[in-house]
Every structure is written in C-alpha cells, then in structure tokens.
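HUMAN: I'm a chemist; might I ask for a sequence paired with its structure tokens?

ASSISTANT:
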Amino acid sequence: MRKIIIIAGPTGVGKSDFAELLAEKINGEIVNADQGQFYEPLSIGTAKPDWKNKTITHHLFDLVKETRNYNNVEYQKAARACIADIHARGKRAIIVGGSGFYYQMLLFEFTQLPETLPIPSRQDPVRTWDELYKVDPVRAKAIHPHDQYRINRALEIFYSYNVLPSSFGLVYKPSFSYHFLHINRNIEELYERINKRSVLMLAEGWLEETRSLTAEWKNFVKLKKTIGYADILNYQDGSIDYETLVKNIQQKTRNYAKRQRTYFKTLLKKIPINDHWCIQEINLTLLPVDLYLNQLNKLLN
C-alpha cells in the first residue's frame, strides 16, 4: 500500500503551501488535520486555504456547520476512510494541519476502548483542573493545574468515552504506512512570519468574518479559545484598541506555535526507534523548499 505523507509543524511555518507543492509533484490529495478548519464559518482566522478553488483536491474541510465539538473518534474514522479512498484511486494522501492530537489518532491506538462510544454529553465547556480531579484524581495529579491543553484532552476523553482517562494507554499502531515530515523554521523567522501573517489576515477580512458570525458562533469561538476571535470581539465592542488587538493576536499565535513545537517533538519521541527512518526533519530556514521537494519526489517515486 502507498505510504501516506504527514506534514506537521507549528502554525505559520508554511505547511499548507509546502503540501500543495508536494501534491503537485507526487499526484497527491490533501487531507485536513487542523481543528479550526473543520468549522465552516471560520476561514480567515483559521488560515483555511481556499480549498474549493484549488487545483489540488482537498478533503475534510468545512465538515462542521453547527456549534459542536468535532470528536477525535469522528476524525479518526473520517480520515481513515478518506485515505483509503484516495489510495484506491491511485493517488497519495497528504495529511496536513497543526492539531497534533489528530496525528496521534492515526499513529496510535487507545487501549481499553469501550465497544461503543457514546456521543459527547458536553459541548466545549470551560474546563478546569478541579473538574478533572473530581472525575479522575489519578490523571489530574499527573497534570499541572495550569496545563489547560492536557486538562481539556483528559476531560474530552472522559465525556466522549465515559471512562476514566487514567485507564487509557496509548499503543503505537499506525493506521497506514507513512512518511512523517516535521516542518520547522528558525524561531526568529517563524515569529516574524507569524507577526506579518496576523496583520495580513486582519487586512484580508478577519474583522468582517468575525462580525458576521451569529451570536451562537461568537460564544463558541470564545469557549474554544480559538486564537484571535475573542480579541476581535473585544475590539469590536470597544474594550481594546486596534494596536492592542494586533499585539494580542501576534503574541497568542507565537505562544501557540511554541506549544506546537514542543508537542510535535514529544510525539515523535513516542515513535519506536525502529520507525525513526520514517521521520524527516525539514528546516525551511536552512534550505530552499524546492530542494526538499525534489529530494522527496525521488524518495517517494
């Protein structure tokens, strides 16, 4: 079976452009793995590509049209089916996005899964360490009280599967053969790209996109803490000025990129040493994109 290509890395690094250029060379189709880009009304603020007008076929964008959390199990099933279909048509699937947990769902399996998975009983509440401690003190004690990401993930498991997150374990069991491209840049260049992109996104209509959201969607992006939207809402109600808005978005995006860099490094360490040949580190600051693309084209064909 053809290997899937996984393109991972921090926001603003250039994953989408790299994926499209690679897809042109290897007859590929792109499969989304970015949480924000699942939601139809959220486009500019999630850096969603104009996928409907691309020459390269894109999948799993704009899947969710209502304010609900897109479950990790839903993604796992949808991505597996999508990849199988792409390969059945003689093309190659390229997974690209910044939500590392979805990559984890393709490379690892949870142990002790219940036979049936109930529909989540909550829709993105504000979750706290104390809430996790009440339902699963064992898992809570292993997480720092300020580690919002892991607290949210643990409670998502609990409310999605109705089992204690501490009872789960991860087993390396890839759904497909794969080649993992970890895209990065030197931190100074990455941060500069993020700063410029934030300004560009605002100029391209992010303010208008946010203003056009329904009250339900505005509440949803606040609860999900989708970067930038809450700040724009604060700007639009007069709570902050434009300069503060820009600085807030830039800072929050840089912080997110830093967390992503850490997450992907940790994820790659979980892959057994025997499969490290599947992983390629790509620093776009050090070498031009074309050189990497030509190397990959030779490797994959």
Summary: The chain has three domains: 4-111+171-186+259-300, 112-168, 188-254. The first strand starts at residue 4 and ends at 8.
